[in-house]
Design a protein that fits this description.
CATH architecture of the largest domain: 3-Layer(aba) Sandwich
Shape: elongated
Strand content: 5-15%
Radius of gyration: 20 Å
CATH class of the largest domain: Alpha Beta
Oligomer: single chain
Distance between the termini: 46 Å
Strand order of the largest sheet: 2-1-3-4-5-6
Largest sheet: 6 strands, parallel
CATH superfamily of the largest domain: Response regulator
């Protein structure tokens, strides 16, 4: 039976340990986990030195957003099969992952039967969407909604998704204690535009002043 070389990109140690244990005792498909990357930089280095058939990718990596990482991986490793295996089942993430180059998307809450079916489909060159996931908004007809309700606790990955790329740039400069005029000069925009971005960032993150904004950004590693 052909052995498939795989890499897991995930920094949740207990999950990775459990997944490796399950894969070691499964023969169809037979996955050989040749390495585990706990961040995007290590993953890129591993992909340069190993022949890898499939990547199991968590979107929330400590050093890079997995959604942004996907196009890079697809451009540099055209034959690599990429299956997102993530805690995040929101429609917008699923849709963007496929748009950015994923071959499959599975939630960590899916059962192993669905997981192995997904791996087989992806390895055969097909796309796969795990049970209960969607790439279009759920139809509320009959009061049914398939997306999970968002948790009252939002982690760093979800928080960062609230901000636009320009807002991220402004936030980074705010945390460097730069005022609106200095930020405007660096980004080639007006003072007024910086002020609008600043207000939008504080509104989205639920803080009321610059000191709390900087504290929030540092605590949640947003910059």
């Amino acid at each position: 039976m052909e052995t498939i070389n795989a890499i897991i990109a995930d920094n949740q140690k207990m999950f990775v340990t459990g997944l490796r244990s399950v894969l070691q005792n499964h023969n169809n498909p037979k996955l050989n986990i040749i390495a585990v990357a706990n961040n995007a930089q290590i993953l890129k280095e591993l992909l340069q030195i190993h022949e890898v058939d499939i990547l199991l990718l968590e979107l929330n990596l400590p050093d890079e957003d997995g959604l942004n990482l996907l196009p890079q991986l697809r451009a540099e490793h055209k034959d690599l099969k990429i299956c997102v295996l993530s805690n995040y089942s929101q429609t917008k993430f699923v849709k963007q992952a496929f748009q950015n180059g994923a071959d499959g998307y599975l939630s960590k809450s899916n059962d192993f039967e669905d997981f192995f079916t997904g791996l087989e489909e992806v390895l055969e060159g097909n796309t796969f969407l795990g049970e209960g996931l969607r790439i279009t908004p759920a139809n509320n007809f009959g009061g049914i909604k398939l997306d999970r309700k968002p948790s009252t606790y939002e982690d760093r990955f979800l928080i960062k998704q609230k901000l636009t790329s320009r807002e991220h740039e402004v936030l980074e400069l705010i945390t460097q204690a730069k005022n609106n005029k200095e930020i405007a000069k660096e980004l080639y925009i007006s003072d007024q535009t910086v002020g609008v971005h600043r207000k939008n960032i504080m509104r989205k993150l639920g803080v009321r002043n610059t000191i709390n904004l900087i504290k929030f950004a540092m605590e949640h590693q947003l910059v």
